Amino acid sequence: MALPNINQQTFELEVPSTDEKIKFRPFLVKEEKLLLQAQESGKTEDLIQALKTIIENCTFGKLNTQDMPSFDLEYVFLNIRAKSVGEKVKIKVKAPDDNETMVPTEIDLTKINVHVDEEHNNKIQLTDTAGVVMTYPTIDMFMGSNLQNPSTEEMLDIISKCILQIYDGDEVFDRADTSDSERKEFIENLTQEQFLKMQQFFSTMPKLKHEIKVTNPKTKKKGTVVLEGLQSFF
Predict the structure, then answer these.
(1) Domain limits at 213?
(2) In whole angstroms, what is the distance from residue 96 CA to residue 39 CA?
């Protein structure tokens, strides 16, 4: 006689970049095991694959993690995690006054949202006539790199893959019609000022962001800590 399948409660969330409403369920023991194994391996590619598999399973195959902006994927996973193992988590953060003392604090994962900078723009004007149109990085673009601190070469590779179009006057060069090496060469021939404009696209792009108030137990001084990115909430 076959054992029964336990029905799981479903929840709803809104995907930040599209405003699409989707249903999801908490992850199961088998999926938590997959995540723990990926964390134990210490390999970025294992962790990325685990996150993608869990999201695809828990959203009933409704999301294409291959093409999702990384901030969408992080937001969806954070909500799945909140309903799976608890909405409130305890973490330690550095007190901002001495940047050394670790302060225990508790955060509510359901209060974490994707923050959009007012100065963010995916069209970057590099000269009077030339510029680029950017698209958001997917989680796959970080495969094989350091998620928290990519190297210069890794960052150049990510920027190259995020160029959707290059234009100069009436001429438009679509990503599909250019190679990675051609786009990298284009980036390497920019001035420092022009390159900083491209970097600003990434520094201002939507991201998980949350501010918490903490008090340094040693100095008794109060301060604000800003948490950004999925790794900050675990």
Answers:
(1) 87-116+206-234
(2) 28
